[in-house]
Amino acid sequence: MKTLLRELMFPLIAVVAAFVIGGLVVLAIGDNPFTVYRILLSSAFGFYDALGNFTWDNWGYTLFYATPLIFTGLAVALAFQCGLLNIGAEGQLYSAAFAAAWVGITFKSLPAIALVPLCMLAAMLMGAIWGGIPGLLKARFGSHEVINTIMMNFIAVGLVSWLTQAYYKTPGDPIMQTVPIADQAHLARLHTFLPPFPARIPLNLAFVLALLAAFLVWLFLWRTKWGFEIRAVGASPAAAEYGGISVSRQIILAMALSGALAGMVGINEVLGYRYRYYHDFSPGYGFTGIAVALLGRNHPLGVILAAILFGALIRGGLFVDIFTDKVSKDLVQVLQAIIILFVAMELLFKRMFAHRLKRA
Description:
This protein is an all-alpha fold. Helix content is 74%, strand content 0%.
């Protein structure tokens, strides 16, 4: 635990520094940074609305926005542990969302007890396939996973767009989306189990699945032989191979599991929120997941905390845009970018501090 807290210390410093610099930007624009940050944080983590009424909306929407980022952050983090950079989470979650919708549309006669798990399995399996292909190409032919996953993104988005348009879209519907999935394929919203959460909040059981997935990733990576072998390959492929570990097999396994985790975004989107496949539903979850993994130090607990932070920025940015005069929700992107820059420059800062300590 001490090691984890020490690992999370620099990301925390990066977040604080980003808010300080963001405050200077707000000040330069001509607005009050304290007012802006009060609106940002209270609308994400507060318990009262603008009229002073008690509400769970703020927390509910923050956790809802964090849910897909937990999945994609875990996906990127798991690949990182094997020394791989999965840039293809976007394509994996698109193909997985369509697969979940296809099952929910095609097998409407199945009862909920069978259809819901089948839709989930379809999403995870399609994500695993879409992630496993670049892993296979990397393992067998040495082709770089970054290039392969980027290309697979374009293929996934184009393919599911064509399938939706040609076969599963309601005739005459101007929106690029499929027909609805079966009612029994819907995931329950948390309002069902926690009545204080209003039914209008789209937070659903996918958030619980995200937390469970984080625990299982931790268990897999740090408590199993397969997880140890993946981390060994990430630390030193040559040493791992010398120790009898199949590097190729671990690369394929890591990329397939990474894709399956990214594919679970489709569970939240299709089964828990829209109840259909809606094209362009992702505002860049797969790419934001890279930032979440970096900020979370590629550890499941860190990923959860980083995803909640980014979810809070998304939620709070909407109200900053509404209730401030000169600051728009683009401040959220500025803060995200500065956080990523500080995290990326960690090694530089460590060297600077080490050099100063030696001189002292």
